[in-house]
Amino acid sequence: MRKRATLKDVAKRSGVDPTTASKILNRRPDCYASAATKEKVLESARALDYIPNVYGKLLKGGKTRTIALLTRYAREEDTLATALQMVRLVHEKGYRTLFHQLPFHVPDVLALIDDLIARQVEGFIFLKGHEPAVDERVGRLVEEGYPVLAVDGYFDFPVDRVMGDRFEAGRLVTEHLLACGARRIVMICSDPSNRSVEPRVAGYRQALEARGLAFDERLLVGDAHSYRQAADAMRRRLADGEAPDGVFGYNNETAIGAMCALSEAGLRVPGDVVVAAFDDMQVAGYLPGCSLTTVYFPWQTMAREAVKMLFAGLAREGKPGRFRKKTISPVLTARQSTARPAAPGAS
């Protein structure tokens, strides 16, 4: 086996001292070497196939400068975009990220967390969702002094959190549909009592009642997560003779599924029914004939605030501190699916 190059080898080839080489390779913010020197060191490291000895650093009392980023929803477009932006921002601060899709089975999740601890990660980011089965283990991480951050997700105990304002998102999109003249607005969701869905329903309800319209639970269509489920749910509602004039989708898939069912029934969007949805997938802006109005949380902002909060936690170095929460405001992007003249007297 060929002998691995060392930090001293890289420094010697670059004509700098090992301390300067280390700061450049680890992207330390206190490195003041010139751009030319930095490029020379990086080129030497590439030429020598230099790989940092992480565990050697640990034996010397150093740190791995590594963050764990965990999510159950890596296949979702906005989740992946947020995660990749966080990876980039963490890298800019001289740290690296171990990004993992959470396993399905709880024992595997617990084993993953233990493995990450063995790898000496310095902090944990949990992106999206609620993980009640691992609450106890994550609670012990907090007790042990690890910075733990929930990004647009929940735990049943205090942790630092960056959260989208789902109540305001529900209120904002419902007000927009009302301004377009809708009065019988069906809300398609997974489970109205779900911790992620419940505040959206509350915002939807407040917007209706602020216009003097009664909240009608029969207009909440639950147990619809996908294109097909939403289309089937809308077909059943239309078969009952209860055609809506507005639809608020739990996500883009449910809104698009509902639009397909409405089209089958000869109802035009937005002429007969205005439609909007939570989240903002790329497809929303490119649906042929009728792009989709959406309400969403800017993932760039979410990622930036999350990394800022994480590094504030790292700076505490395990010392107890007040848990913090940052709320991200929603953004509404109006497109063709609600391009109807505003109702008389609508603001």
Count of domains:
3
Beta-strand share of residues: 15-25%
Structural class designation? alpha/beta
Distance between the first and last residues' Cα? 74 Å
Highest CATH level, the class of the largest domain: Alpha Beta
What is Rg? 25 Å
Can you write the helix and strand succession as a string? Answer: HHHHEHEHEHEEHEHEHEHEEHEE
Shape-level CATH architecture of the largest domain = 3-Layer(aba) Sandwich
Profile the largest sheet. Answer: 6 strands, parallel
Describe the strand arrangement of the main beta sheet, using strand numbers.
Answer: 2-1-3-4-5-11
Structure description:
It is a single chain. This protein has 347 residues and is of the alpha/beta class. It contains twelve helices and twelve strands. It folds into three domains: 46 residues, lambda repressor-like DNA-binding domains (434 Repressor (Amino-terminal Domain)); 117 residues, Rossmann fold (3-Layer(aba) Sandwich), CATH 3.40.50; 138 residues, 3-Layer(aba) Sandwich (Rossmann fold). Helix 5 crosses helix 12 and helix 8 packs parallel to helix 9.
